[in-house]
Amino acid sequence: MSLFGKKFECQACGMKFNSEAELRQHGAVHMAPKPAVPQGPSCPACGVSFRSQDELKAHAQQHHGM
Ligand SMILES: [Zn+2]
Ligand SMILES: [Zn+2]
User: What is the pLDDT of residue 33?
Assistant: First the structure.
């Protein structure tokens, strides 16, 4: 038993395509700039995330008087 078609799978999202060309074309959607994912420390008071401890500190001082 063999599988026909759709053997080109997108590594990023798992979508399957019939040809490499289609897969490549689809790949463009993953090249678009993504919204920044906050990965730094977050404010314990309001939950906002920052890129660095310094930014968090500045925020906490400004907004929460900490
Ligand atoms: Zn994809
Ligand atoms: Zn805050």
Answer: 74
For the chain, which residues make up each domain, given as ranges?
1-34, 35-66
Nearest-ligand number for the alpha carbon of 64? 2
From residue 65, give the alpha-carbon distance in Å to each of 45, 47, 54, 58: 11, 15, 15, 10
Residue 40: the pLDDT is 87
* Ligand closest to the CA atom of residue 45: 2
Cβ count near 26 (within 10 Å): 16
Q: Which ligand is nearest to the CA of 26?
A: 1
Task: Tell me the whole-structure pTM to 2 decimals.
Answer: 0.41
For the domain made up of 1-34, give the CATH fold: Double Stranded RNA Binding Domain (3.30.160)
Q: What is the mean pLDDT of each run of 10 residues along the chain (66 residues)?
A: 73 94 92 71 91 94 93
Residue 57 C-alpha to ligand 2 middle, in angstroms?
Answer: 9
